[in-house]
């Protein structure tokens, strides 16, 4: 059976970009680290961190801050991308959604040490989560987990262990590693990223986004995961969307914004209810209604411009005749057949 495990790992593997698309500059003598990406302006307002995981690896993470953010998004990318390829997208999402974004490279990706394995990705996301709690003061109620493709694995794993998350976004997610390759009806011990068995333990609203023409991870993966969610949010099935180009469709940013806004409103209403209940119990003659303020709301800006990342298999992705404005920076997921 060990041979079967090796076969699965070989077919559904990790493909860190080689060489890494970025370098870390500065940081000597306690100075500020910066991410250097060719042809991308260096930004001084992004925190570049090195975090030690429980498995002994040092991973790179970045924190993109928005001045009016009321929530933080922890983003787990696909299996053939690194932070340098994703940087512009993270900045764009932070601006459009008005959220802080924390993203990281898995062990063995970019400038992170170690080797990429399923277990290491779980340790990686745990280290980033701990940093958000300890260094940035982020509470679970303020945290949105975002997992794209293979990144849905560590995302669902962490979400299944936390009780008070604000929300989860699954972008072209997988049921499990084996199910991407074979239409199996049960979970085997050697399978990896068993989202199908964990999604039912996620206790917050879940948005699923999947392209109907995804040729790497069939849309049925997203649909089945959505059916298994406890708190279903209206899913987004992007007609004609592939595995790597969903950010190019206007529905992507529009629906993602609506989801984030709905979470902010839900959170505001919950806090308002608690305050009202407390006030009522303290004084029957006085009732206060919580005002959510303006920090949790935003205008729907124009649709996402023609700049985004492609999340997916550059070798499997065929150029489709669509309304795609232009080819975006590649952040590919790869499956070897």
Automatic annotation (TrEMBL):
Residues 278-291 have a biased composition (Low complexity). Coiled coil: none annotated. Gene3D superfamilies: alpha/beta hydrolase (3.40.50.1820). InterPro entries: AB_hydrolase_fold, Hydrolase_4. Residues 271-337 are annotated as: Disordered. Transmembrane segments: none annotated. Residues 312-330 have a biased composition (Basic and acidic residues). It comes from the Eukaryota. Residues 70-176 form the Serine aminopeptidase S33 domain. This is Serine aminopeptidase S33 domain-containing protein.
């Amino acid at each position: 059976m060990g041979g079967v495990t090796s076969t699965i790992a070989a077919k559904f593997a990790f493909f860190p970009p080689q060489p890494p698309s970025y370098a870390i500059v500065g940081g000597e003598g306690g100075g500020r680290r910066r991410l250097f990406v060719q042809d991308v302006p260096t930004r001084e307002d992004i925190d570049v961190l090195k975090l030690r995981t429980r498995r002994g690896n040092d991973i790179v993470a970045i924190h993109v801050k928005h001045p009016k953010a009321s929530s933080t998004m922890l983003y787990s990318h696909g299996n053939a991308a690194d932070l340098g390829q994703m940087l512009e997208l993270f900045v764009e999402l932070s601006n459009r959604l008005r959220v802080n974004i924390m993203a990281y490279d898995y062990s063995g990706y970019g400038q992170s040490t170690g080797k990429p394995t399923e277990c290491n990705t779980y340790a990686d996301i745990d280290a980033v989560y701990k940093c958000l709690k300890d260094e940035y003061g982020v509470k679970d109620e303020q945290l949105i987990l975002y997992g794209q493709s293979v990144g849905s694995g560590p995302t669902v794993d962490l979400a299944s262990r936390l009780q008070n998350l604000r929300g989860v976004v699954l972008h072209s997610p997988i049921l499990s590693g084996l199910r991407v390759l074979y239409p199996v009806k049960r979970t085997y011990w050697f399978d990896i990223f068993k989202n199908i068995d964990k999604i039912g333990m996620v206790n917050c609203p879940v948005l699923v986004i999947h392209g109907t023409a995804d040729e790497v991870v069939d849309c049925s993966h997203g649909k089945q995961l959505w059916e298994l969610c406890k708190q279903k949010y209206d899913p987004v099935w992007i007609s004609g969307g592939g595995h790597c180009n969903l950010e190019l469709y206007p529905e992507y940013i529009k629906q993602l914004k609506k989801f984030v806004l709905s979470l902010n409103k839900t959170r505001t209403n919950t806090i308002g209810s608690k305050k009202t209940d407390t006030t009522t119990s303290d004084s029957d003659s006085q009732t206060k209604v919580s005002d959510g303020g303006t920090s949790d709301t935003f205008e729907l800006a124009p649709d996402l411009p023609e700049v985004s990342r492609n999340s997916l298999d550059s070798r499997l992705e065929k150029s489709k005749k669509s309304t795609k404005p232009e080819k975006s920076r590649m952040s590919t997921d790869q499956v070897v057949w």
